[in-house]
Amino acid sequence: MALHPVIMAGGSGTRFWPLSRKARPKQFLPLASKNPLISDTVSRLKGLATVKDTLIVCGPSHAKQAVKLVKGLPKKNLLVEPVARNTAPAIALAALAVAAKDPEGILVVLPSDHHVADTKGFQRILSEAARVAAGGHLVTLGITPQRPETGYGYIQVGAVLPGGGRQVKAFREKPDPETARRYVDSGEYVWNAGIFIFRADAILAAFDEHMPEMRKGLDTLRKAVGKRTFPAVLKRVFPKLPSVSIDYGVMEKAKNLAVLPGDFGWSDVGSFSAIPEVRPADEHGNVVSGPEAVVVDCKGCVVLADKRPLAVVGLTDMVVVDSGDAVLVVPKDKSQDVRKVVESLKARKRDKFL
């Protein structure tokens, strides 16, 4: 039962400006450790799958950096999307690549920019998910909720399935605070982490059934896989595929679903406010990075310094970031709004800072 990790590395990570830029999005930043998130994503699969069986899906502007950070990745395992078309076409592209050499090979679809604290626990649940997927199920991992989070989608979990895993009763969009509290209190819901495990032939059959509008394009790509003409065919066909997420396009419609709830120290590292979840804090709850950072009388702050001195005094629950050419100061509870800075810079045509 060969596992084929598919690392989704197409995100832009605008909530981490000024550290993240067009040429260096979130997945290439060392936010949770000394290594970039994408490098940690591949490393935590060691012993479960090989780099030679790993696929990276990304855009043209990030291809060179992805190869540089994922040591030993075969050139043919870098799948470059001509344009961004959301997760369904990206996963379909990876499934075609795997199916060409191993139709029953199992894809392990992973975001490139998440953090996992318990690697052994993560590998155990992936191994169990692969066993369930080998039987033909489309499997997703659900994270046991730690709080009534409004920033994640939820999965309603049903009865235990005969082949392993649990029934998926429903996918729910990001809820309001009251609904999120109800979900958590019920004990029936898990967070949707965007981690999927399925056989290549099973997910391709699901695309045919639930996204027939992609069938013609995928058939054309399937015939070209492994041929010299594939790059040209991909460039012509891929932009015409519908821009749809795998959740909406397939998972919310399919009947052969299974979910495995788990708790392995997962974080999507969604904004600067999540940094204390993945990095150790001092006795005052501050996460401080950079040899030139000076923090005085602060509590619950995230302070990330560059090469020059960065002094922060008397602040509580603030984020202060110096990237060398730009500085960000924002309350932790407003960290999601950092993307608005990027929008403003775009409107002002300040491209040198994007």
Automatic annotation (TrEMBL):
<dbReference type="InterPro" id="IPR054566">
    <property type="entry name" value="ManC/GMP-like_b-helix"/>
</dbReference>
<protein>
    <recommendedName>
        <fullName>mannose-1-phosphate guanylyltransferase</fullName>
        <ecNumber>2.7.7.13</ecNumber>
    </recommendedName>
</protein>
<dbReference type="GO" id="GO:0005525">
    <property type="term" value="F:GTP binding"/>
</dbReference>
<dbReference type="GO" id="GO:0009298">
    <property type="term" value="P:GDP-mannose biosynthetic process"/>
</dbReference>
<keyword id="KW-0547">Nucleotide-binding</keyword>
<dbReference type="InterPro" id="IPR029044">
    <property type="entry name" value="Nucleotide-diphossugar_trans"/>
</dbReference>
<feature type="domain" description="Nucleotidyl transferase">
    <location>
        <begin position="5"/>
        <end position="282"/>
    </location>
</feature>
<keyword id="KW-0342">GTP-binding</keyword>
<dbReference type="Pfam" id="PF22640">
    <property type="entry name" value="ManC_GMP_beta-helix"/>
</dbReference>
<dbReference type="InterPro" id="IPR005835">
    <property type="entry name" value="NTP_transferase_dom"/>
</dbReference>
<feature type="domain" description="MannoseP isomerase/GMP-like beta-helix">
    <location>
        <begin position="292"/>
        <end position="345"/>
    </location>
</feature>
<dbReference type="InterPro" id="IPR049577">
    <property type="entry name" value="GMPP_N"/>
</dbReference>
<comment type="similarity">
    <text>Belongs to the mannose-6-phosphate isomerase type 2 family.</text>
</comment>
<keyword id="KW-0808">Transferase</keyword>
<dbReference type="Pfam" id="PF00483">
    <property type="entry name" value="NTP_transferase"/>
</dbReference>
<dbReference type="InterPro" id="IPR051161">
    <property type="entry name" value="Mannose-6P_isomerase_type2"/>
</dbReference>
<dbReference type="GO" id="GO:0004475">
    <property type="term" value="F:mannose-1-phosphate guanylyltransferase (GTP) activity"/>
</dbReference>
<keyword id="KW-0548">Nucleotidyltransferase</keyword>
